[in-house]
Amino acid sequence: MKDQFRVTAIVSTYKSERFLRGCLDDLLSQTIGDDLEIIVVNSGSPQGEDEIVRREYLPFHDTIRYVRTEERETIYQAWNRGIRSARGRFITNANTDDRLRKDAYERLADHLDRHPDVGAVFADQYTSYVQNEVFTEHRGGSVRRRPSFDRLLFLSRYYLGSQPMWRSEVHSQHGIYYSERYAVAGDYEFFLRLAEHYPIEKVHDILGLYYLDPGGNNMEYQNAQRTAGETEEVRTAAIHRWVDALTPQQVRLFLHRMQRYQRIPELMHYGIFNMALSLGIPTLMLPRGFVCYVGSVLAEKAGDMALAIRFCSGAAHSRNADVLSKRKQLLLSRGTV
User: Fold this and answer.
1) Which alpha helices (H) appear in 102-201, and where do they start and end?
2) Domain 5-224 superfamily per CATH
């Protein structure tokens, strides 16, 4: 077996026997060929993944490595396990139910090779509602179009999709791994921290299929409350890290930008933002609640506590209204206004 690869794809499997053959066949058909290392991490699954990998793939493909744990691990524990043994210059996660265009990894890796300062890349995907549908046979699904990477926009929401690729040096040089305290928002937390060290760029092409289970069994939809709570937690921490790193001049610049957003009437703001999302139009418009929270943190950093408190009252109809209300009470309790 080779000692080094161009790309390592990490496959975590738990109760995904019905997807595993299709996933591995899809990866083996990638145009980068034997320059792709595939690490399968079986997190104690009670289904037949072990026999599938050991009998049907390991004897015939020396680019596949296999690990099985006795106890069930979270997906982020499994990905970290794969990352620590990866030998690729670039790393990606390969969800068992998603599929790729045959040259997807080649396109993503080429971009990273051409731009050595870039830490991670992503692309658009089609939505598939059919189990094990391959890219060449896809029909009729919508395109999950994503805007180009913008640091502030990414602080407001995760939009890299399920098939990003990043440099292995992210782990070796900066010690960034997936936080194992999260069940669903670990992707977001990982790339928020990566973005503090590297630019992230979009490859402007449709390179994959994202399987959206009609029964709502995708992980992020199984427990909406937990997803929302974890997302808010990692976003809030990242916002404060970002603001803390700004110079006074940058604070004034971004604070002015948040004030311009807040001048848009609240319901009009929601209408424009939601229309863009419903039409599948990539929008650089920031969500109202996010604008008000970031504006409040920036104003506090600038020493204008009265403005920081006013921002907290600017998104009464937002999903973040409770978060803003708690922040307002915190600011008032400090007795600085």
Assistant:
1) 104-114, 151-156, 169-174, 186-194
2) Spore Coat Polysaccharide Biosynthesis Protein SpsA; Chain A (3.90.550.10)
